[in-house]
């Protein structure tokens, strides 16, 4: 119950952080995003440590992650803080994941919600990158190389994660059983 509530609260933080970015309130946007990122780790920890895993949580947690990350990446691109191509890669991966899950369900061969280790690493790096971009603006750091090379790291991990899902799905849909 508690981990699901934390995921729901993270969903409520998304429009707030987006509005703060659009208003140029970088400091509050950073701390709101930081709270959302920490909540992602906390809900998972609580669910595992106290055996509070639920089927709802298996869907709610990644949904909250995707809502947060897609919204932040799109908003940061719209206000010119990250390149559009990077946002397209991040959004494409998440649309592909959601589309694959829906397709499998429609075909009557649901896919179990078990993210790969690379996918988890990708989420952590995307959250770290989003937080770093917000911190650069909030605290007036002048480190364009961090954003530049961090963007390439996010792109590489996102692309690799996308490839892992494609391979998993090809195997899943090719399985005759």
Architecture overview:
It is built from 6 helices and no strands. The protein is an all-alpha fold. It starts with a helix and ends with a helix.
Summarize this structure briefly.
This protein is an all-alpha fold. The protein is built from 6 helices and no strands.
Could you outline the blueprint of secondary structure elements for this entry?
Blueprint: H1 2-22, H2 26-49, H3 55-78, H4 84-106, H5 117-138, H6 144-174
Label this structure with key terms:
single chain, 177 residues, mainly alpha, 6 helices, globular
Biggest sheet, in brief? none
Specify Rg, calculated over alpha carbons. 17 Å
How does the overall form come out from the CA principal axes? globular
First-to-last CA distance = 35 Å
The SS-based structural class is mainly alpha
């Amino acid at each position: 119950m508690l981990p699901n509530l934390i995921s729901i609260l993270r969903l409520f933080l998304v429009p707030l952080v987006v509005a703060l970015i659009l208003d140029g309130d970088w400091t509050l946007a950073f701390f709101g995003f930081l709270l959302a990122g920490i909540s992602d780790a906390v809900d998972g920890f609580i669910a595992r440590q106290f055996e509070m895993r639920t089927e709802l949580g298996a869907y709610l947690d990644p949904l909250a992650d995707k809502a947060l990350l897609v919204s932040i990446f799109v908003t940061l691109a719209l206000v010119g803080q990250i390149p559009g191509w990077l946002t397209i890669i991040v959004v494409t991966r998440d649309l592909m994941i959601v589309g694959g899950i829906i397709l499998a369900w429609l075909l009557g061969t649901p896919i179990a919600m078990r993210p790969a280790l690379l996918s988890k690493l990708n989420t952590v790096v995307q959250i770290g990158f989003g937080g770093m971009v917000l911190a650069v603006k909030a605290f007036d750091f002048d480190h364009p190389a961090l954003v530049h090379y961090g963007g390439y790291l996010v792109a590489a991990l996102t692309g690799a994660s996308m490839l892992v899902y494609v391979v998993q799905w090809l195997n899943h849909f090719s399985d005759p059983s």
